[in-house]
Amino acid sequence: MTPSTETLRGRAEKRMTASVKDARLLPLEEMQAALHELCVYKAELEIQNEELIAARSLLEASQRRYFRHFDLAPVGLIRLSRDAIILETNILAAELLGLSREALHTSSQRFLSHVAPQCHADFQRHLAAALESRKMEMCELMLCDAAGVETFVRVQSVRSRGEQDAWTLYVTLTDLTERRKIEQLLASQQAEMKKEVAARVRLEEEILAISEREQRRLGMDLHDGLGQQLTGIALLGKVLADKLKAVEHPCAAAAAEVANYTAETINVTRVLAKELYPVELERDGLLMALEDLAIQTRQRFDVDCVLRCLEPQLRFEKSAEIHLYRMVQESIANALEQGHARSILIEVETAGGFHTVSVTDDGIASQAALDESFGVRLIHYRARLIGAQINMEQLACGGCMVTCRLRAPAIA
């Protein structure tokens, strides 16, 4: 027997001696009845003892589960009073708050004292919402411990009836510090990437602008320089041919042929100059330049090329006109070179606040061929520069349709 058991037995014997007569003086029937009662009572005590042992085992198992689920939970768990006084915490919550559990439980610590000053208002709103709502409320706060170490956490709170029918809050704290560091790093990298992309776009725009200036210069040189020289050569050739013919020189026909070839070369030079430097675009706007492009395409390639525009006075922003012109020019080139088109329709219209420029052909170019075309990539690039949407589709009846949609009001 253990000391506690011996003490309990001695107390029981004293009580029995004081209250029960000497057993030797009792009749046999009373002794037998008393013995029976004692045996039954003993059996009852044994049953109760077994039940108490089982209940104790269940309680110990429940305490172990509680320890695993509450104390060792991977998130901070806190029970708060209605006034946000800390009533109970698990191990991780105490670590996040920077104090021992004993200090938190015995000193009526207010949770607000562990919240960074800049987040006090956020927590007060969260507390009020959690006490008013029947569902779980969530917010994100910055905690600050006694050493000044800040921890960014997600706070989730739900109310429940506690002791004496008072509201208590069950709160979970999830440490988001590492996630926030990663987010800040990603944001920094994204900002750097945006700067690099912006710098690359500016560089590409500068390169494209230089290309346009060079094309303009070459076009002007062809028209004003080479074109004038060829014109002079053509005039000299014609004069020479006329003089040789007048004296019936045998080289007269050859001289006339040279003059004719020179005149054809002048026409080709003018076409090339217009392709490089569309004078009509700067002088008369996009629609007149597209009309001239359609005429030049008909004459040069012997195909049916027509411009259709229901609003002849429509004008685009100057910064977009050169890109739209080049996109139409490239679409026509693809239709002729890859699709071998015989009919090309250029359409310009405005509807729903959008300008739409489309080029439709009856060619045989495949989608794969268009996707691999450098000209198509250049069309998409120019569209991005002016904020336009490009759509290319193969038509069921054959051919291809390139549509450029630009949100920009017409300029009066």
Report on the structure:
- By secondary structure, the protein is of the alpha+beta class.
- The chain folds into four domains: 25-72; 73-175, Beta-Lactamase, CATH 3.30.450.20; 200-277; 285-412, Heat Shock Protein 90 (2-Layer Sandwich), CATH 3.30.565.
- The chain contains twelve helices and ten strands.
- It has helices at residues 3-19, 28-71, 91-97, 101-106, 120-132, 177-246, 252-276, 279-284, 286-301, 318-337, 367-372, 374-385, and strands spanning 76-81, 86-89, 137-144, 150-161, 167-175, 304-309, 343-351, 354-361, 389-394, 400-406.
- The strands form two sheets. It has a five-stranded antiparallel β-sheet, sandwiched between helices.
- A hairpin with a 5-residue loop joins strand 3 (137-144) and strand 4.
- Helix 9 runs parallel beside helix 10 (318-337) and helix 10 runs antiparallel to helix 12 (374-385).
- It starts with a helix and ends in a 6-residue tail after the last strand.
Secondary-structure map:
Elements: H1 3-19, H2 28-71, E1 76-81, E2 86-89, H3 91-97, H4 101-106, H5 120-132, E3 137-144, E4 150-161, E5 167-175, H6 177-246, H7 252-276, H8 279-284, H9 286-301, E6 304-309, H10 318-337, E7 343-351, E8 354-361, H11 367-372, H12 374-385, E9 389-394, E10 400-406
Parallel strand pairs: 6-7
Antiparallel strand pairs: 1-2, 1-5, 3-4, 4-5, 7-8, 8-10, 9-10
Helix pairs in contact: 6-7, 9-10, 10-12
Which terms would index this structure?
12 helices, five-stranded antiparallel beta sheet, 412 residues, alpha+beta, 4 domains, rod-shaped, five-stranded mixed beta sheet, 59% helix, 10 strands, Beta-Lactamase
